[in-house]
Each structure stands twice: as structure tokens, then as C-alpha cells.
Amino acid sequence: MSHVDGISGLAGFALKRNVRTRIGTKSDHSALKIAFAGARMGKPLFRAAALGRSAQTRLSRIRSETMAKAVRIHEHGGIDKLRFEDVEVGQPGPGQVRLRQTAVGLNFIDTYHRTGLYKLPALPAVIGVEGAGVITQVGEGVSDLKEGDRVAYAGPIGSYATERLAPADRMVKLPASISDETAAAMMLQGMTVRYLLRETFSVGPETTMLFHAAAGGVGLIACQWAKALGATIIGTAGSPEKIELAKAHGCTHVINYRTENFVERVKEITDGKLCDVAYDSIGKDTFPASLDCLKPRGMWVSFGNASGPVPPFELTALKGSLFATRPSLFAYTATRKELLDNAAELFDMVGSGKIKIEVSHRYPLAAAADAHRDLEGRKTTGSIVLVP
Ligand code: NDP
Fold first, then answer.
1. pLDDT surpasses 90 at 30
2. Per-residue CA distances from 281 to 96, 100, 216, 236, 309 (Å)
3. pLDDT per residue over 323-371, tens digit each?
4. How far does residue 49's CA lie from ligand 1's centre (Å)?
5. Which sequence spans correspond to the domains of the chain?
6. Which residue among 281, 330, 358, 386 is best mutated to probe the pocket of ligand 1, counting the most ligand atoms within 8 A of its Cβ?
7. Which atom of ligand 1 is nearest to the CA of 108?
8. Fold of the domain built from segment(s) 68-181+358-387
9. The ligand 1 atom nearest the CA atom of 236
């Protein structure tokens, strides 16, 4: 540990942040030197007294400029692990931008990060992967973005925050037709729908598809997009209200999979012909039944685990020459071009009114735990936004 790492409090903060040049006056420098010496001697009172009032005021101002509020986890677990606290943001490094966030998207993947189903690189961590806001600073080497640009993103972890640093090459500039809230609500779910319907499987007028959780965030966007592509959409949903909502967003048929056997219903609806593709984000509870809804050579797209992960299975379960894939948005938007192409098509679909993004639930950022409880409790429909 260096001597700077070894001190704490105001003086430590100032030295660690290398703010001496910003503090300015000679007397402030002297105060910091004395404070630093006091801190090394382990005398916090001496340290506080040594700092002049003006230096303290300026340090407080600098502190408020670099600190943000965020929802962090220090260990994996239930919603009680979500802590709303102060975090240091810092200056953007090479290839980074600093963002003041105006809206944060909440997604089911955030619950996987919270519980540890999906591993995080390190703890403590600010969770969340989606947001929109304004760039307040750019780091070295960032040439295509500038202070004041309105942007949104899906992917870089750490979005449950009032401010954050983020990789510039994952930011997408927002057109005037897309509000910050709409962007935060749709970047992850909308770009997911785009790759699922246009790339994982090419959905068109000839396609009969099964889409689970059709009234959810991804679901309502998928219903509208698939309808625009001319497909026959068989959705599933967990309540009469959700069924109505899915129908209103373009689902041709909707099955209540909590009260009905969805395989039998798919057989009835399709006259035994079954589906070309089954989009399954439920995981454990709908496996292997979703496979039974597919025609020979149909495609099972397992893209989520709302009820828990799909258990290990024998390849012979893919009877009838079925195809199986386990796609992720990142793999479909890994290059800057893929990201921008996907986002551009999503912006077109929303900007032209073919898709309406339903922000059905808004929570203050500090109440992220309530949002997690409702999402996991199957109480939500459409998209969820946290308000920083
Ligand atoms: P949703 O708004 O769709 O919420 C999940 C829905 O799943 C619930 O509302 C509920 O709807 C249904 N569900 C069924 N069983 C359960 C259960 N046991 N516990 C909780 N919910 C259940 O969430 P999102 O739109 O954020 O995400 C949908 C899915 O898509 C998730 O599985 C997510 O991981 C996945 N996803 C995958 C991506 C990828 O690239 N692979 C990217 C983005 C999302 P109902 O009551 O109608 O059953």
C-alpha cells in the first residue's frame, strides 16, 4: 500500500484524486501538506484542523463534483443486498466518457447480476446495464463524442447511478425523435428483439412463432416488431390482464401458461403444424415443453432464465432435427458497426411509430429494490425505468 493509499478522509481524498492543482492557493497547499503529514502520523483531528476553512470548502465542492449516488451490491443475494450509497465517479480515462444519467433501464439480467447467476468481475459493484443521459466529459482519444451529446447504451455494467464512466465505443447518439426515457427503456430490450427476429431467425410473413412472456419488456417490443414483419405470433403470459396487453401489442394468439398446457394449445392453434421458432426466456419452467412446440428443423432460441437456468440435457432432446441456440445481445453487437446498425433499425422502428415503447413502471433510483421485487414477482409489464 502506498502512503497515499494509506490515508483516509478529506486529505486522503484530495491527494488520491490529485486535486492539488485544482485547490489553487499556496496556503491551501501548505494546509494539505500539514494534513498529509498529520495523516501519516495517524492523527485525524490534527489533519482536520490543519486544513483551512477555504481548502475544506473547496475540497467539499470537488468531492461533490466527483461523487454520485448509485445502487451497489457488496455481495450477491436477495434484494436486501441492493444498497443506495455514495460512489466516487472520477475522471474519464482513455476511451471513456463521463455521463450524467437522466434515465436508467431496469432489466431481468440485473436480477441475475444481483443473485450471482451471472458473475460480476468484482465486488462491490454498481449493477445495471442500460441508461441514457448527457456526456459531461470525454477522455483521451474519444473523437466522435463531445460534452453535451445525448447518448444511450446497453451493456456496460454500472448503470444504476446518477453519474458514471462508460466506454465511448458502446455509446449511441440519440436522434431527436427518441426521448431519454424511451432510450433507457428500450436499448437492451429493443436491440435484443432486433437480433432475435432479424438475425437469430429471419422472421417473416411465413413464420409461426412462439414467444414466452409476451407482455414483458422484451415481449411487448417483440410482439409489435414481429407483427410489423407479418408473422403469426403465439404468445404466452401469466394473467388475463397480461394476455389482453399482449394482444393489444400485436400477438395473434395468447396462451395463459399458468392455467393452460401451452404445448396442447399450440397444437390446437396451429392445427398440429407447430411453430418454426420458439423464443424462450423462461428457462427451467418451460423446458423441455418449448421443444414440443416446434416443427421438424425448427429453432429453439433459449435467451433467458426468468424461472431459473435450463438444466443440462441430452442432445437427443432435439428430436426432429431441431436447432438450438443460446444467444446474447453482446455477441450480436460486438463490433461498433453491429451496434450502430442494430440501434439505427430500432430507432427507425420506434421513430416511425411502428413500435411504441411502453414504460409501464417508473421508480426512483433509490427504490431499485422495489423494482426488483416487482419484476421477480411477475407484477410488471412492459419496460421499467429508474429515475436518477
Ligand atoms: P420481463 O419484463 O419479460 O419479465 C420477466 C417475465 O417472465 C415476467 O414478467 C413473467 O411474465 C415471466 N416469468 C415466467 N416465469 C417467471 C418466474 N419464475 N419468475 C419471474 N418471471 C417469470 O423481463 P425482461 O423483458 O427484462 O427480460 C425478459 C427475458 O429476456 C429475461 O429472461 C431476460 O434474461 C432475457 N433477455 C435476454 C437477453 C439476451 O440477449 N440473451 C437480452 C435481454 C433480455 P408472466 O407473468 O407473463 O409469466
1. no
2. 32, 32, 10, 11, 10
3. 999 999 999 999 999 999 999 999 999 999 999 999 999 999 999 999 9
4. 55
5. 9-51, 68-181+358-387, 205-326
6. 281
7. 26
8. Quinone Oxidoreductase; Chain A, domain 1 (3.90.180)
9. 47
Cα 14 from Cα 239, distance rounded (Å)? 55
Ligand 1, atom nearest to 326 Cα:
41
Q: Supply the DSSP string of 296-341, one letter for each residue.
A: EEEEEEE---TT-PPPP--GGGSTTT-EEE---HHHHS-SHHHHHH
Strand order in the sheet with 253-256: 253-256, 232-237, 208-211, 275-280, 294-302, 323-325
Atom of ligand 1 nearest to the CA of 328: 40
Question: CB within 6 Å of ligand 1 — which residues?
Answer: 107-109, 188-189, 192, 213, 215-219, 237-238, 242, 281-282, 285, 303-307, 327-329, 375-376, 378, 380
pLDDT tier at 296, thresholds 50, 70, 90: very high
Express each pLDDT in 103-132 by its tens digit.
999 999 999 999 999 999 999 999 999 999
> Which mutation among 218, 242, 290 tests ligand 1's pocket best, with the greatest number of atoms within 8 A of CB?
218
Asked if the 205-326 domain carries CATH number 3.40.50.720, the reply is yes
